[in-house]
């Protein structure tokens, strides 16, 4: 029998990542961070000097990514190795996010990553984090959530995160970035960011991530 999947989609900064980590931990289920696969593909292309619009070459890279996720010990975050190099820190930067969204528009790249993503659906279950989990990758998921928040709230969260890491950015520049990325992700032809017809929409602007977590956990217990 296929493993149960909770598909969680939404724009960056909606709190999706934190929500998915908390859910996977609470349920002791697997976690798929699909954005990381697009980030790794963009990063690998960049490092090898492959043009980001060279669809076949980038798709070939995506299909053959040499990546390992090494679980952190004692509450440390998972480390990500690309070709044996620890890329955990560079993976999360704005620059890598931009590389990711450029390779994410390529049909062959999305196709190359499809099977890899579906392989994560293992017993006892999977929490899948992305943009097209409910629409394309796991269309039969019994629980689909579409998590949003205002662009301003998302920019402020991101601003705090980056400031804590000592990166120098301005709130205005972040807001502009977020709006540009939203536009690119939701207007692209392939697997655009949009709620599945049967997704439950939640807004974390006012709710806060802990309340969102409690609501989704209650839904999961009721449905799965
Ligand atoms: O979620 P994250 O910020 O890591 O995603 C980086 C980029 O990868 C997104 O802006 C989007 O362009 C792309 N992406 C995607 N489909 C997914 C996950 C991410 O196109 N399922």
UniProtKB/TrEMBL annotation:
Matching entries from InterPro entries are given as: Cytidylate_kin (IPR003136), Cytidylate_kinase_dom (IPR011994), P-loop_NTPase (IPR027417)
MF (Gene Ontology): ATP binding; dCMP kinase activity
What is catalyzed by this enzyme?
dCMP + ATP = dCDP + ADP; CMP + ATP = CDP + ADP
Q: Report if keyword Lipoprotein is assigned.
A: no
**Broad class of where this protein is predominantly found:** cytoplasm
Q: What is its EC number?
A: 2.7.4.25
Where does it localize?
Answer: Cytoplasm
Q: Which residues are noted in the entry as ATP-binding?
A: 10-18
Give the EC class as a word.
transferase
Q: Which GO terms describe its biological process?
A: nucleobase-containing small molecule interconversion; pyrimidine nucleotide metabolic process
What Gene Ontology cellular-component terms does the record carry? Answer: cytosol
Pfam families in alphabetical order: Cytidylate_kin
Taxonomically, which superkingdom? Bacteria
Entry keyword set: ATP-binding, Cytoplasm, Kinase, Nucleotide-binding, Transferase
Q: Which residues form the Cytidylate kinase domain?
A: 6-221
Q: Which family does it belong to?
A: Belongs to the cytidylate kinase family. Type 1 subfamily.
What name does UniProt use for this protein? Cytidylate kinase
Q: What is the lineage of its organism?
A: Bacteria, Pseudomonadati, Pseudomonadota, Gammaproteobacteria, Cellvibrionales
* Gene name per UniProt: cmk
